[in-house]
Amino acid sequence: MVVGLAIREPLVTVIPRLMPQKLPDWQMQLEVWRLVVFLLVIIRFYLGSALYFAEVYGQTDAARSCGKRSYFVDFLGSLLQFLLFFAWAITVAQHDRYKGEISYFTVILWAILLYDNVWYCASLFGDTKDAIRPRRDINNLTLILCLLTCVGARLAGRDQVFAEHLMFFPALFFSVKDLRGMLGRYEQLAPRVNAAGGG
């Protein structure tokens, strides 16, 4: 439900404002780019969360051999992460900037990319940390490249809007790359889950 509300928020904000315009101004262009980034990242995280719960708690050999795990920690971790997505959704059409430099859209994107480090630390005493580690690593790499492109653009004398646009490319690249990998994992996992569940 949280994911659905998060996806709905920018769609009902950006799309109606885009329709009457023939040539969108820079703010609308930025909002469209933000919407694309938001949708790809939330789909990536949603699918990643679904795969994580299927692999750790589903009816598979990997889930049965997982050992010590805490559904409460994982459920709470996932819920808090998607609440961050809802906050992020609200910023798609906002153009305020923290101290006039970094948009709130960017700040929350960075928080979302960092969040798996918190989830990983909360799972250190269980056996699920190995399932969280690959997601954490790709999100950390995405964050580092986003920061480097943003800072690099500002050091090169470009404005904040250009820096934000440039930062979208690592986020989009790793989202598409990760989605392709997860779809492959899902295709491998689905028959085993269906067979184990009798479906």
Rg calculated over all Cα atoms: 18 Å
Total of DSSP H or I helical runs spanning 4+ residues: 7
Largest β-sheet summary: 2 strands, antiparallel
Task: Report the order of strands and helices.
Answer: HHHHEEHHH
Mean pLDDT: 83
- The shape, in one word, is globular
Number-wise, the strands total 2
The domain count comes to 1
β-strand percent reads: under 5%
Distance between the terminal alpha carbons, to the nearest Å? Answer: 25 Å
- The spatial strand order of the largest sheet comes to 1-2
Helix content: over 70%
Structural class designation:
mainly alpha
Residue stretches low in confidence (pLDDT < 50, at least 5 long) are none
Describe the protein in words.
The structure is a single chain. The chain is mostly helical and 199 residues long. It has one domain. It contains seven helices and two strands. It has helices at 2-18, 26-57, 61-64, 71-90, 104-122, 129-155, 160-197; strands spanning 97-98, 102-103. Strands 1-2 form a two-stranded antiparallel sheet. A hairpin with a 3-residue loop joins strand 1 and strand 2. Helix 2 runs antiparallel to helix 4 (71-90) and helix 2 runs parallel beside helix 7 (160-197). The two termini are 25 Å apart.
